[in-house]
Structure formats: structure tokens, C-alpha cells
């Protein structure tokens, strides 16, 4: 079973920086939570309590989504997609950590959506539903990081991609080489992380610069930020799947290739894709591009 629901209980909440909150979950049901192998950029879905504090009762099988969709909107709970930051297993049980991003304006006002707002107010004992892989699930479902045999990497992302990049770096083989560039709102948002010795990690505090501009410079591409938000779908292309979800027949990456992984605001990702693939001629089969969110648009699901 690729994905199923798990009831999770807040074990700890930590404010890591002005823009990041880490919530660590426990609970008996997480004993069966996966993945079986390394997480890399494993996606999960979180369903938050309704305004009445209730969580939907979902079947523990592949039909959970259909059941959730049939519920009245006020009974469903808001669902959002996140990345695994860490999974720890020991004698005390399984603990899942998820990093949430607070979206703070230039005046310091919080304009976060329902997920980060929930995280900001979360307390030990609070509950939500995690939709994720079984512990014995090894299909790789929900993991877009697909370098094949490549051992040289270029990772680029904004603050929303920072948790996935951190997890990828922690899961890379020791002999990996390359770089990771992470753009964050301020220097106070630079977080400690672990990476192979051959991978250079660069934190890029914006401090008022245009979103994505520092990443574009780090990647050596020229991009143009759209003047207004558009209604185009999120860009999501990997060596295995096209943006329309079509399975691709690209050859897996070989030792000696360079693999690019780029995620964050969709307009930024689109511009960097154009610069790398169309201008610099990076083969499409060596790049994963993922729009996690869209500027000026409230995301769902």
C-alpha cells in the first residue's frame, strides 16, 4: 500500500528561527510509518483539525483520498503537502519531524497559511493525520530525487525546499560531491545541517532581495520574475515524469553525470528551468524541477 493515514500526536514544538518551526510527532500508529529506505525528498500529506478541533476518520487503505473528498468541507480538515525532515526510531517509538515555514512580511506580520498557523500554535498532545508510506513500502512513491548512479549534485531551493534539501543531504552517500544553495528570508534563518564532505552548502539570506534572485545567480542563470501571479499549474518535472504526469523513458543517471534538483516557488523554478535546460543545455533527464507553491496563490492539497 503506497500511502495510508496515520494518527500522529505532537511530541515537541521548536522555533528554530524567525521563519522555521519544527514539530516532532509521535504516537502508536507511527510505528508502521515508512519509508522502508532512505527518505530523500519524500512527500507526505498532513490533515489538520477542523475549526471544531476534529479530525476525519479515514480508512486505512488506498481509498482514503476518495473518502476524504466525499466528506463535507467543514468536516474534512485542511490538507497540505510537506516533506519529511527526519524519522527517528528507538525503544521509545517512532518520531517524525516536519519543518514548517512562517511567511513573514517585510513589516514582520505573519501571512502564513493554515498549516503554518497551526504549527505556530501547536502544543504537546495535539493531533493531526499524516498521510504517508508504510514502513515496508519500498516503491519510492512520493520521492522525486532520482539521480540514478550519479554522484555529483546541484541542489537549489528556497525556504520551502530547505527541509527536503536538508534530508537529501543527510541521505547522500559519503562520497557525493557538488553543492547545495538554499535561499532564506534572513541570516537568522540559517540552520545547522549535515552534508557529505564533498558537498558545499551555501545559505543565501535574501534580506529584501527579490525571491529567487540569489538562487538564480548561484545557478548561473538569468531569470525574470512574473509581474503578477498567473493561473498556470505548478511546474513539476523529473527524470521519471513529465509535468503532465506522463512516465518518461529517460536513461538513469550514470556515474560522471551531474544531477540538478530545484524546488520552491513555481515562478522561480520555471525561470531556473528555462535557464538551465534551454539556455545552458542541461539534459532534461538530469534535472528535477518542482514548484512547491505559487506566489500570490493559496495552495491546496
Question: How many strand units?
Answer: 13
Can you give the mean pLDDT? 89
Task: Report the C-alpha radius of gyration, rounded.
Answer: 19 Å
The CATH superfamily of the largest domain is identified as Nucleotide-binding domain of ferredoxin-NADP reductase (FNR) module
Q: Beta fraction of the residues?
A: 25-35%
Quickly name the level 1 CATH class of the largest domain. Alpha Beta
Order of helices and strands: EEEHHEEEHEEHEEHEEHE
Protein structure class? alpha/beta
How many angstroms does the end-to-end distance come to?
A: 20 Å
How many domains? The number is: 2
Uncertain ranges? none
The helix count comes to 6
Domain FAD-binding FR-type: 3-148
GO molecular function: oxidoreductase activity
Pfam family, one: FAD_binding_9
Protein name: FAD-binding FR-type domain-containing protein
Describe the secondary structure blueprint for this structure.
Blueprint: E1 4-15, E2 20-26, E3 43-47, H1 64-70, H2 73-76, E4 79-83, E5 86-90, E6 93-101, H3 114-121, E7 127-132, E8 152-157, H4 162-171, E9 177-184, E10 198-205, H5 213-219, E11 236-237, E12 258-265, H6 266-279, E13 287-293
Parallel strand pairs: 8-9, 8-12, 9-10, 12-13
Antiparallel strand pairs: 1-2, 1-7, 2-6, 3-4, 3-7, 5-6, 11-13
